[in-house]
Write a structure and sequence with these properties.
By secondary structure, this protein is an alpha/beta fold. The chain contains 12 helices and 14 strands.
C-alpha cells in the first residue's frame, strides 16, 4: 500500500506501525523520526498567516502535481489541528480526480483515547492490526505505571497543583482537546482548558484571577527553542510578578510541537513531561531530555 501523510501525527503513527517503506509523501512539517525528512513534500502552509487572534495560517496548501506523482492508495490527514491541517473535502476531491479508488482517512481525535483509536484505525486500514494493538498496549502500560505513581503520591498527601497551560502567548489562549486530560493524568489540575474542545482567547487578568501554582507555555506548533525565544521578546503582563507561579519559579516552556500538538504516540511523552513539572520529586528524569525548561 502506498501511503500519503498530510499530518505529522499521522506520519508518526505510520512509522510506529512499521509502515515507513510504504510512505510516499508527507508535509513540510513532518519531522519525526528524522528519516522522514527524505520523503517527498506534498503540502506546506501558505506564506501569509490567516487573519485573527488565534494561531495558525489556515489549511495546508497541497501540491496537486506532487499528489498525483505520489500515486497513493491511502491519504491520512487531520482537520482538528489549528496549525497544520488539511480539508477532508478538498483532499477527497483532489484524490478522486486522480483515482476514485484512493481512500482518504481523517484522524480527528480530541482525547487521549481518541489518539489510541486513531492508531488502531490506521492499523485496520493498512492490515497492521496486530502491530497497532501492540503499540496501543505499550502506551496504555506506560500510562498505567505513571498513573499508579500519581495515585500513590496522592494517597501519601501530595495535593494536585493548580496549573494553567497556554496554547498561545499573545494574546493568551487556553488549551483544549487532549491537553487538560494530559495534565490531569500527570497529577495536576488544569484550570482554564476546555477538554475535548478548541482553546479560546483569554486574558492575563483571568490568569491572575485563578493564580496558578504552575504556568506552562506551549504555543501551538512551536518547538522549545522557538517558545523560549518568543517569550523572551514579549513584555510581561501587568501583575506578572505577583502570580504565584512566578513567585515560586514554576513557569515552564515545553516542546509543544513534539509532545502536545500531535495526537499520536508521543502524547504519552507529553504526559511524562507534565508529570516531571508537576511533581519533580516523584518523576525526576522521566521526561525526554530537553523537552522543557524553566523560564522567567
Amino acid at each position: 500500500m502506498r501511503i500519503l501523510s498530510l499530518h505529522p501525527a499521522a506520519t508518526e503513527i505510520v512509522y510506529a506501525l512499521g509502515l515507513e517503506d510504504e510512505l510516499v509523501g508527507v508535509t513540510a512539517y513532518c519531522d519525526e523520526p528524522p528519516a522522514v525528512r527524505q520523503q517527498p513534500t506534498i503540502a506546506r502552509l501558505p506564506l501569509s498567516p490567516a487573519p485573527g487572534p488565534l494561531p495558525g495560517p489556515g489549511l495546508l496548501e497541497i501540491d496537486r502535481d506532487a499528489l498525483e506523482a505520489a500515486d497513493p492508495d491511502l491519504v491520512i490527514l487531520s482537520e482538528v489541528n489549528r496549525v497544520c491541517r488539511a480539508g477532508f473535502r478538498e483532499v477527497r476531491e483532489m484524490a478522486a480526480a486522480i483515482d476514485e479508488e484512493i481512500e482518504v482517512l481523517s484522524l480527528d481525535s480530541v482525547s487521549l483515547e481518541g489518539s489510541f483509536n486513531a492508531i488502531q484505525t490506521v492499523g485496520a486500514m493498512t492490515e497492521t492490526e496486530d502491530d497497532a494493538v501492540d503499540v496501543v498496549g505499550g502506551l496504555r502500560e506506560r500510562l498505567q505505571r505513571l498513573e499508579a505513581i500519581v495515585a500513590s503520591r496522592r494517597d501519601h498527601g501530595f495535593v494536585a497543583p493548580r496549573l494553567v497551560a497556554l496554547e498561545w502567548l499573545d494574546p493568551p489562549v487556553s488549551v483544549g482537546r487532549w491537553i487538560p486530560e494530559q495534565a490531569r493524568r500527570a497529577g495536576g489540575w488544569e484550570l482554564m482548558g476546555r477538554e475535548g474542545q478548541q482553546g479560546e482567547v483569554i486574558t492575563w487578568a483571568a490568569v491572575r484571577e485563578v493564580d496558578p501554582e504552575i504556568l506552562v507555555l506551549m504555543p501551538a506548533g512551536m518547538a522549545l527553542s522557538s517558545t523560549v525565544a518568543a517569550w523572551a521578546k514579549l513584555p510581561r503582563p501587568a501583575g506578572w510578578a505577583e502570580l504565584r507561579a512566578v513567585r515560586e519559579g514554576r513557569v515552564f516552556a515545553v516542546d509543544a510541537s513534539a509532545y502536545f500538538w500531535r495526537p499520536g504516540p508521543r502524547l504519552l511523552e507529553g504526559i511524562e513531561v507534565l508529570a516531571e513539572i508537576i511533581d519533580p520529586r516523584a518523576f525526576d528524569g522521566m521526561s525526554v531530555p530537553n523537552s522543557f525548561v524553566r523560564v522567567d
